[in-house]
Design goal:
2 copies of one chain form a homodimer.
Chain A: H1 2-5, H2 9-12, H3 18-22, E1 30-33, H4 45-58, E2 65-68, H5 75-83, E3 87-91, H6 97-104, E4 109-110, H7 118-123, E5 132-140, E6 146-148, H8 155-161, E7 164-170, E8 216-222, H9 236-254, E9 265-267, H10 271-282, E10 288-291, E11 294-295, H11 297-305, E12 308-313, E13 315-316, H12 320-328, H13 330-333, E14 337-339, H14 342-345, H15 348-354, E15 357-361, E16 364-366, E17 371-372, E18 375-376, E19 380-381, H16 388-394, E20 397-401, E21 405-406, E22 411-412, E23 414-415, E24 430-433, E25 436-439, H17 445-455, H18 462-474, H19 490-496
Parallel strand pairs in A: 1-2, 1-5, 2-3, 3-4, 5-7, 7-8, 9-15, 10-12, 11-13, 12-14, 15-20, 16-23, 20-24
Antiparallel strand pairs in A: 5-6, 16-17, 18-19, 21-22, 24-25
Helix pairs in contact in A: 4-5, 5-6, 9-10, 10-11, 15-16, 17-18
Chain lengths: 501, 501
C-alpha cells in the first residue's frame, strides 16, 4: 500500500507511527488540521496526541494546543482532543459534543468566524503563529506534490504557514481523487488579483497541494473512512419547507429574474436542505449548478440523475452509502465535482458574481428578520456560523429556513427579538417555515414584521407576536423598528426556566 | 449658459421649468433620484414636486411617491418632499430631519440596505418598477452622453430602469468634472464578469452616463451649489481616538502585515474620521491611497498635501470652502480622484481584493464587539447603515470608533448588549474610543469582553460592565457568550426614562 501512496522517496523516509509523529506536537503549539464536516480530517495522530496529553496531565503538566481546522471534524479528531481537555483555543466551525461542552463550559476559547475569512486571518497572524500543520492527503506524488483528500478547507494555508508538517496519507481515500481539486491562493493585499471564476465549473488553480519537503517531519499511513454523516429521509415539515422554496423559485423563473436552470445553488447541511435537493431533483429543472461549501448526499443524487451538471465545494460530507457510491464511480463524479480551498468556495467575490441561491438553516429569527444561527438562548454555542454569512450577504437570494417550533412545540423559532444576531435583517431576504415563506425583499421593518408573523410563525404563537408588535408600535420605542426592550427576551427567559415560550 | 451645458439638440428641445418637469411625476410613482451625502442631488424639481403634492393634498388627493436615492440628499430634496409628507417609501441612506421624523413616526416606510446592494435590488425589482429617474448632471454632450455631477450613486441604474427621465443640468457644478468619473456596470447574474480593479487608481469603465434620449421627458437648468457640509476642527476626544488608530497602524506596518504606505483607506463621515485624516496627513506616510465611499475635506487636504496619491469614491461631500477649492483646482484633482457608481465604490469584490482599512463611526458597541450603527435605543433610526457593512466585512481591518460617552456623559457607548445589531462580532476587528483601542482579532467572546471593558469603556462605567460580565459568566446563560437576558437592556431602559445609564 505505502508503495502506491507515498511515492516521494524523501517523504517515504519520514514514515512513522502516529505516536512518534505526535511527539512533534508540543504543549502550547498551534496546530492547523485538515478536515471539513467530518471529511478529510486526520484519523490517527490526534488520538495519539490525546494519549500524550493525558500522560502529561497525569504528570501535572498543562498540555493543551490551539486547534485550527477547516470546519467540523469527527470524534477521532475534535472529539479525542477535547475529551482530554487538550485544546485551549479552537477556530472556526465545530459540531463535536466534547468540543461544544468545553467551549460552553468556559474551558476552551472558541473564535467563531466567517469561513472565508479564516485563511487570511491566519496569514495575517490573528491567531498567532502556526507551529504544526497536520493534514490528511490521499497520496504523495514522486515529486512531493500532494493529492488532496475529501476536504480542502484551509489545508494549503496551513501547509504554507506551519513550521512543521505532519502528513497523514489515508489509503481509505480513493487515489482517484487526483484531479478533482482546484487549489488556488489569493494571497494577501496589496498583491491580489481577480479570481477569474465566472461559472461553477471554472478551474483557476492546480489539482495539488504543495509543501516544502524540508518542513515535513512525519508521514503517517492510515486507512480509515471519513465520518458516516447520517442521511435521513426528509420529514413532513422539511418537505413542506422545501415545497415553499420550490414554489418560490418557480415564481422567480416565471418573473424572468433568474434563468430556467436557476442560479448556482448553495445549500447548508441537514434535513431541510436534503428535502430541497430532493425536490429539485424531482422537479422540471435541467443543467443545474452548485457553488456551495459542502457536497452532501442530496447533491450527489442530483449529479447521478443528471440534473446537476457541476458542483463546486470545499468538501464532501457523505453517508457511508453515498461515500461508497462516490468512491466506486469517482471517475464520473470527477467530471462534475470541483473541490476548492474554503477561501474560494466561500469567497464573497465569486458568490456575488455568480449570484448564488443561498439556503441555510437557523435556530431562530425575529419578527424583523434578524437571524440567530449559533447561540441557543443567546449564550450556548451550537456549531458556529460556518459559511452562512459568506453566502447570505453576497447571494442573489438569501433564504433562511427552520421548522416554526422546537422542543416538541414548546419553543417558537420566530421570536420578538433574537437572543443573538448572526445575520442582520439586511442579509435575510427570505424566511421559510413549514407554514409559509416570507419574501422580505425591499420591505421596511414594520412591513417585514407583519409578513413574518403571518407567513412563518406557528399559529399558536401568532397572537402573542402580533400583540408584542402592536404594543411596541404604540410604545416609547415604536419607531423604525418597534421594540419593548423590557420584555424583548421574556420568551427566552421562560425557556431558560424550562417553561414553554 | 444653456448653450454650453446642453449641447444635444434633441435634449435642448426638452428644456422646461422645474414646475413643468414635475408634472411628469404622478401619485404613486417610484422616483429614483441622484444624490449622495448632500452632493449631486436634484436642486429644483423636488421642491416643485412638493408644491404639486401640497396642492393635490389640499384637494384631498393622496400624492406620495417612493423615493430611491444614492444616499442622503439635502433640504431641497429629501427635506422638501418629506416636509409635505410626500414620500411613502424611502431607500437606502438618509440623514434629513424631516425624513427621519416621518420614518420614525410611522408615516413612511424606510428600507435600509447595504449601499452596494441597492442597484441590484432595484434591477431585480425588489422595490417595484421605477417610473421616473430624476438625475442631476454637469452637462449633456452633443451626442447625448451625460457628464456626471459630484455624486454618481445609483444614477446609471436609475437611468437604465426608469420609464421616464428628468435631467437637471446644474451650471453651478464644474463642467470640468468631465473625465473624473468611471462608470461601469456589473449587470445581473449569470452574466457577470470580474471587476478588474486591482488598485484604487484603476479605471474600468467610461467617464459618462448614458441615457436613451427617447426616455428623457424634461431637461431643467439649475444653478445651485451642493450642500455645505460643515467641517469642524477635531475636538479632544476625536484627536485621542485618531491617536490610538495612528499608533495601531504604525504597529501593523512595523509587524510587516501592511506596506509602509498602508492599504487603501476607507473613512466614514464626521469629526472622528476627520481627525484620523488630519493625523495621517501630519504623519510620516507617503503614497497613500483611498478606496472609499465619500471624499470629504480631510481627504482633499491629503490630496493637496501630496500624501494621498489617489482617491476612489462615489461622491464628494465638501464644506463650501473645500468645494470652492475643488472647483478652482479641478484639473489637478481630476488626476487624483475617481468617482464610481456606489455598486463599485462599495463592492465586496474590490474591497476584499484591495484589503481596505475601514474606519467607521457607530452609536454603541457591546462588550462582545457587536455594533449598532443605526438605531438609537434599539428603535429610532438615525441615518442608516450606509456602506459600513460593505466595508467592514470585506476589509483587511474593520475599525469602529466612537467617543465612550454620549449625552454629556449620561450614556455609555459601551453597553452589555447592543439594542440593535448592524455589525456582528465577526465583522468588528477593532474598537476605539478616546480611552483606548481594543484589538479583537482572533479573540473569543469572553476574551473580547475583558479587552473592550478595559480599553474602550469610560472608567465610570467599567465596574458595572465588569460586574455584568462576571454575573453573566456565573449564570445559567454563562456559556460561549455570557448574558443576563433579564437585564441585558436595563441600561437602555434607564436611558429611555431619561435617566443616566
Amino acid at each position: 500500500m505505502s508503495e502506491n501512496r507515498v511515492q516521494s522517496p524523501a517523504l517515504r523516509g519520514k514514515i512513522m507511527s502516529a505516536e512518534d509523529a505526535a511527539a512533534f506536537i508540543h504543549p502550547g503549539d498551534n496546530v492547523g488540521v485538515s478536515g471539513f464536516t467530518g471529511s478529510g480530517h486526520p484519523k490517527a495522530v490526534p488520538s495519539a496526541l490525546a494519549r500524550r496529553m493525558t500522560a502529561a496531565q497525569s504528570a501535572g503538566e498543562d498540555f493543551r494546543v490551539g486547534l485550527w481546522t477547516g470546519a467540523s471534524t469527527a470524534p477521532e479528531c475534535d472529539g479525542a482532543l477535547f475529551k482530554v481537555n487538550g485544546v485551549s483555543f479552537r477556530t472556526p466551525y465545530q459540531s463535536d459534543p466534547e468540543c461544544r461542552g468545553r467551549v460552553n463550559g468556559g474551558e476552551a476559547y472558541y473564535a467563531d468566524a466567517h469561513l472565508s475569512h479564516v485563511a487570511q486571518n491566519a496569514a495575517w497572524g490573528h491567531y498567532g503563529e502556526l507551529d504544526v500543520a497536520l493534514i490528511e492527503v490521499a497520496a504523495v506524488l514522486e515529486d512531493g506534490r500532494l493529492v488532496p483528500s475529501t476536504a480542502v478547507g484551509n489545508n494549503q494555508t496551513w501547509l504554507d504557514l506551519a513550521k512543521r508538517v505532519i502528513l497523514e496519507v489515508n489509503a481509505a481515500q480513493s487515489a482517484r481523487l487526483e484531479g478533482m481539486h482546484d487549489i488556488y491562493a489569493v494571497g494577501v493585499p496589496p498583491r491580489r488579483a481577480p479570481i477569474t471564476i465566472v461559472s461553477s465549473a471554472d478551474r483557476v488553480g492546480l489539482p495539488y497541494l504543495r509543501v516544502d519537503p524540508e518542513k515535513v517531519v512525519a508521514v503517517v499511513e492510515t486507512n480509515a473512512l471519513d465520518r458516516d454523516t447520517k442521511f435521513s429521509e426528509p420529514d413532513e415539515n422539511s418537505r413542506r419547507i422545501a415545497g415553499h422554496i420550490l414554489d418560490f423559485l418557480r415564481h422567480e423563473v416565471k418573473k424572468g429574474r433568474i434563468p430556467a436552470n436557476l442560479l448556482p445553488l448553495q445549500s447548508g447541511v441537514g434535513n431541510v436542505a436534503n428535502a430541497v435537493m430532493a425536490g429539485l431533483n424531482d422537479g422540471p429543472y435541467e443543467n443545474l449548478t452548485a457553488y456551495t461549501e459542502v457536497l452532501q448526499d442530496g447533491m450527489l443524487d442530483m449529479i447521478r440523475s443528471g440534473k446537476l451538471v457541476c458542483a463546486s465545494a470545499t468538501a464532501v460530507s457523505f453517508s457511508a452509502k453515498a461515500l461508497a457510491d462516490f468512491n466506486a464511480n469517482i471517475d464520473e463524479y470527477r467530471k462534475r465535482i470541483i473541490l476548492r480551498p474554503q477561501e474560494i468556495s466561500n469567497h464573497p467575490e465569486v458568490i456575488r458574481r455568480l449570484g448564488v441561491i443561498s439556503m441555510n438553516g437557523m435556530l431562530e429569527a425575529d419578527i424583523y428578520g434578524n437571524v440567530n444561527s449559533t447561540h441557543v438562548l443567546g449564550s450556548r454555542m451550537m456549531n458556529g456560523l460556518g459559511g452562512s454569512g459568506d453566502f447570505a450577504r453576497n447571494a442573489y437570494l438569501s433564504i433562511f429556513m427552520t421548522p416554526s417550533l422546537a422542543k416538541n412545540g414548546a419553543l417558537s423559532c420566530i421570536v420578538p427579538m433574537v437572543s443573538h444576531v448572526d445575520h442582520t435583517e439586511h442579509d435575510v431576504q427570505v424566511l421559510v417555515t413549514e407554514h409559509g415563506l416570507a419574501d422580505l425583499r425591499g420591505l421596511a421593518p414594520r412591513q417585514r414584521a407583519r409578513l413574518i408573523i403571518e407567513k412563518c410563525a406557528d399559529p399558536k404563537f401568532r397572537p402573542a407576536l402580533a400583540d408584542y408588535l402592536a404594543r411596541a408600535e404604540k410604545g416609547a420605542n415604536g419607531m423604525q423598528t418597534p421594540h419593548l426592550l423590557g420584555e424583548a427576551f421574556h420568551w427566552h427567559l421562560r425557556a431558560l426556566k424550562g417553561e414553554p415560550m
